[in-house]
Amino acid sequence: MTTQDQHTARPRAATYQDLLAELKTTAAGLQTLHEQAIEAVTPTVQDMVRSGSRDVQRIEHTLDQLLDHACLPEGLALFKTLCRHYWTLDPQATAAYVHAYREMWDADDQNLTDEVAP
To answer: Left, alpha or beta for 52 (phi > 0: left; psi -120 to 50: alpha)?
Structure first.
């Protein structure tokens, strides 16, 4: 092997199967983190809705958190629940959150606004 060959030789590239296995492991970890976050924020959403909270800052902070996890059905359900509650306080701000959801997760979903409005 020449000196030039030694410099251009590369370690064996990962196979497609190796990359796929690594991707599956990473995705499973991300799924778990989403599920844990949803579980952690569920009591907060339930409390705000049950008590009729008018704390806009807390509601918006929670909606911001939920946007990160609305890729899962459970996260989307909580997001919709809190949006329905927030709609009665500030329809324009709620619409902005619905728009943010669509941009982030589901630009083709046209039913979210209808499901949020009372």
So the answer is: left
> How far apart (Å, rounded) are the C-alpha atoms in residues 36 and 106?
22
User: Which tokens in the block code for residue 14?
Assistant: 């990962």
Spell out the domain ranges in the chain: 14-116
3-state class (DSSP) for residue 108: coil
Tell me the residue type at 83.
Answer: C
pLDDT (tens place) for every residue of the chain, 118 residues total = 555 555 554 555 569 888 888 888 888 888 899 999 999 999 999 999 999 999 999 999 999 999 999 999 999 999 999 999 999 999 999 999 999 999 998 755 455 555 555 5
Distances (CA, A) of 10 to 1, 14, 17: 13, 11, 19
